[in-house]
Amino acid sequence: MKAQVMGIGHALPRRILDNKELEQRVDTSEKWILDRTGIRERRIIDPEQTTSDIACQAAKMALEHAGIGIEDLDLIIVATATPDMLFPATACMVQEKLGAWNAAAFDISAGCTGFVYALTVAEKFLLSPQYQYVLVIGAEALSRLVDYNDPTTCVLFGDGAGAAVLGRGQSERAGILATYLGADGRGARHLCLPAGAAARPASRDTVEQGLHFLKMNGNEIFRFATKITAEVSEKTLAMTGFKAGDIDLFIPHQSNLRIIKAAMRWMEIPEEKTLVTLDRYGNISAACLPVGLSLAVQEGRLKAGDLVLMVAFGAGLTYGGVLLRWGCDN
Ligand code: UT7
Known about the structure:
Helix content is 33%, strand content 24%. By secondary structure, the protein is an alpha/beta fold. It folds into two domains: 166 residues, Peroxisomal Thiolase, Chain A, domain 1 (3-Layer(aba) Sandwich); 151 residues, Thiolase/Chalcone synthase (Peroxisomal Thiolase, Chain A, domain 1), CATH 3.40.47. A five-stranded mixed beta sheet has the order 1-7-6-4-5, with helices on both faces. A four-stranded mixed beta sheet has the order 8-13-12-11, sandwiched between helices. A two-stranded antiparallel sheet has the order 2-3. α3 packs across α4 and α8 packs parallel to α9. The longest helix has 21 residues. The two termini are 14 Å apart. Oxa(dethia)-CoA binds next to α2, α6 and α8.
């Protein structure tokens, strides 16, 4: 018995924010953004929408792909760094909007590693016969929490959502083969939202200082990311005996093309086996991996039996990897 991805979906807002527009809004240049990050454009959520709305759009696509009814869901897990509110959980908003009345619902806060954490948790729930189908979503509205006066962060992030329906299957040829998670809280301060919660409640002072916006020490994260992406890939593969050369599709976290290329070089994974979406969508944090999976299916880059390695790192600092064989019994 293995946990399998039965269906996958994504939602990407229509509004495009390209480098040219950012160049007009903030002290940056089209060339700097492309050269230093690989990002050309990102998507921005509609003013009347929020994280749970695009999460639901992605979820509906995944449920249709899986051929599973909303009433069949036993659990909804939403990985997000941009919840609709601090509480209740965005997963509860999603449950309400979908009408998934038989599902329990909770969020996971693991930054950009959120989808890897959520898949890992879902896999454990599926060990129990009480849970047949788990909806796992990575959804972000980062445009709501970045400071469009800060060129060191606002050029990087975008909005979007991806969702996967997980179930149980018997086939040896499909399902999650290995998961690996880790965290290093000593790096928590390098990527955070300083104010607006219990440690520093919102006040006139916090708003004047812009502490309700995402803050990042880019250089520290860059150093951490280049090392950890290769390390996580190796550890995840080592749990199964597969080698980097066996991978059909590598889906790394989409934060900077230089980080992705360093990992590809280290592992000797060629370009044609690596999925890059950040040129089109920027860094959408916990949504990067499920959006990537869904686009890979849509673009015909994934077929049943393919070996997929997903690796992420992010706020926490957290990190993790999932190795799966694409396909399901259905
Ligand atoms: O998923 C969440 C995890 N986050 C990440 O993975 C982000 C990891 N970090 C990075 O991707 C990179 O560190 C950044 C893209 C954030 C920054 O790139 P960098 O090549 O490390 O630039 P830097 O911070 O070392 O800055 C180099 C220069 C500085 O100017 P001076 O001091 O050399 O004059 C910056 O002020 O580039 C300047 N700079 C910019 N210039 C134009 C920083 N941001 C910008 C900008 N436009 N947007």
